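re: that chain from earlier
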Amino acid sequence: MTEPAAVKQTVSVRERIIVALDVENVAAARDVLEELRGEVGAFKIGLQLFTAAGAAFVREVAESGVKIFLDLKFHDIPNTVASAAVEAARLGVWMFNVHALGGAEMMRRTVDAVNEVCERENRTRPKVIAVTVLTSSNAETLTEVGIESPVENEVSRLAKLTADSRLDGVVASPHEIGLIRETVAAKDFMIVTPGIRPINATNDDQKRVMTPAEAIAAGLDYLVIGRPIVQAKDRVGAVNEILSNLGSDIQ
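^ sequence. v structure.
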């Protein structure tokens, strides 16, 4: 198996936690941000909050110094995705994603467009990652949409396609971390994992899940955790409880 990226030796687990702002409105998002800013590494803004709050809110939060993972999973014709990616970069987000199923041309043109605009406008280039197979999907789900190969094979194929397209990493189930490390040789290839659930939490609509400790041991880069933290009565306490079970550094 390929060794985990060397950067993991120097980055704390706290910085590796991305809290999913899967909330209904700006007021709820501000409440979470106020409580957890400085307690975790980044925050994820997905389709629900983006639709409710818009790009202006993303820009406002990013300009305040908070690291934002814009989770909109762009998937369209190459020109459309590349253009949307440029606007994401202009919002100042730290990271955003596309669907690997959009294909190599879509991903390559996206990376090229982001690189060009960031160099021209003197912007910090965001990380660009691709979704392999959604953590809500399983073999039955793939079969329904005409994909007959096992989940693991599809993840491996899409991870290689993503790396070959020069993206920074993938979003994948924690159960595929080892497989991706074996498939992609680059040590700096990022793996961002939703489907992370503390032992006492429910799985909700995620099917391929894992505890934070299991995911850390498997070699992930970033944990995306939503409801177990956001819906906790004491959010800081929920973060600290997770950290207490992991130690101070990713090994």
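The radius of gyration is 17 Å.
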